[in-house]
TrEMBL record:
Origin superkingdom: Bacteria
Membrane-spanning segments: 38-56
Stated name of the protein: HIG1 domain-containing protein
Source organism of this protein record: Planctomicrobium piriforme
Alphabetically ordered keywords of this record: Membrane, Transmembrane, Transmembrane helix
Length: 58
């Protein structure tokens, strides 16, 4: 199993715990956690693309 598959549950857990420690309403927690989950994945994809571009033809 590829280690990158662990990024999805890790990002979900981080976003849920972060938002649960900030808000009390379950609707707000889930809404903001979903948005934060997507932001984390987009940020990691940008970093991955940058690393792939920098390591091209090494």
């Amino acid at each position: 199993m590829n280690i990158t598959w662990y990024l999805f549950p890790l990002a979900a857990a981080v976003s849920l715990v972060w938002n649960a420690s900030r808000y009390e309403s379950p609707e707000i927690i889930l809404k903001r956690a979903g948005r934060m989950f997507v932001q984390i994945l987009v940020f990691m994809a940008i970093i991955l693309g940058l690393l792939v571009a920098l390591s091209y033809r090494l």
